[in-house]
Amino acid sequence: MRDTSWMGNGNCRNLPPDLFFPTDGAGVEVAKRICEGCPVLDICLDYAIENHVDHGVWGGESERSRRRIARQRRVHLRSKQSLRDL
Ligand code: SF4
């Protein structure tokens, strides 16, 4: 498991965790606004994707959005590997 000390530097560090596990789209937008400009946004997003975190808003992205990003990363990685095999 990766180091999680970065969590102490997030915009959410003093907010209730429930805010980041919304039950509707309006809640997702609230969480995403808090994430805007977060100093550890990229680390948070990578953490959630690499650890297959299925629920909540992480790195300013919803579950659905993270699945899309993860898919794009896999496609990108495969195409890089294919180019290397040429
Ligand atoms: S990106 Fe969002 S969820 Fe992640 S640490 Fe920052 S404020 Fe918290």
TrEMBL record:
Cofactor(s) needed by this chain: [4Fe-4S] cluster
UniProt name for this protein: Transcriptional regulator WhiB
Keyword Repressor among UniProt keywords: no
Database matches in Pfam families: Whib (PF02467)
4Fe-4S Wbl-type domain boundaries: 11-68
GO molecular function: 4 iron, 4 sulfur cluster binding; dinitrosyl-iron complex binding; DNA binding; metal ion binding; protein-disulfide reductase [NAD(P)H] activity
UniProt family annotation: Belongs to the WhiB family.
A Gene Ontology biological process term: cell redox homeostasis
Chief place where the protein resides: cytoplasm
Record localization: Cytoplasm
A GO CC annotation given for this chain: cytoplasm
Binding residue positions for [4Fe-4S] cluster: 12, 35, 38, 44
Function: Acts as a transcriptional regulator. Probably redox-responsive. The apo- but not holo-form probably binds DNA.
Keyword Transcription regulation: yes
Cofactor: how and how many bound: Binds 1 [4Fe-4S] cluster per subunit. Following nitrosylation of the [4Fe-4S] cluster binds 1 [4Fe-8(NO)] cluster per subunit.
Matches recorded under PANTHER family: TRANSCRIPTIONAL REGULATOR WHID-RELATED (PTHR38839)
Modification after translation (UniProt): The Fe-S cluster can be nitrosylated by nitric oxide (NO). Upon Fe-S cluster removal intramolecular disulfide bonds are formed.
Keywords from the UniProt entry: 4Fe-4S, Cytoplasm, Disulfide bond, DNA-binding, Iron, Iron-sulfur, Metal-binding, Transcription, Transcription regulation
InterPro entries from the UniProt entry: 4FE4S_WBL, Whib
